[in-house]
Amino acid sequence: MRKRLALLAVAASLAIVPAAVAQQHGTSEDPAPEPTTETTEPMLEIENARLGTGVEERELVGETSSFGIGEKAWLWLQVVGGPGGPIEVTWHSGQESYTTELDVGASRWRTWAYKTLWRAGEWTVTVSDPKGRELHTQSFVVKEQPAPEEPEASPGS
Known about the structure:
By secondary structure, this protein is mainly β. The chain has a domain at 45-143: Immunoglobulin-like, CATH 2.60.40. The protein contains 1 helix and 10 strands. The protein has one helix at residues 2-24, and strands at residues 45-52, 54-56, 59-61, 66-68, 72-80, 84-93, 96-104, 108-116, 121-128, 134-143. The strands form 3 sheets. A 5-stranded mixed β-sheet has the order 4-10-9-6-7, with no helix packed on it.
């Protein structure tokens, strides 16, 4: 009887060990999980956004939130979480809007857009990701250009 119990114990341990070893090495008889077709899209974020009068050497110059008619407003952006895109920059004035697309080519990406301002009043610029999620909004004002002042006559001229 003892021999039978000993043989059963040995047989049982031999059946368990190969299954445990197989699971450690990924060769289990359980079916492999189905691969998913879902891809995780990058989550783009605006790390820095500023308005100004120009961009030189990939940096904003003349930072301001007030412009004159006929001037260009430049929106300079630092985007993180890419590559992804394109992102949309939309300039709003009254009921009208103007959209342009900008590519995001790396995990940290500087890019910019500009709009020539033709109407006085309150303007807004928004940045959205490819799914339409708003990433940034900024307001600014466009003022009528005052007439140039005549230089004062100097005495004795």
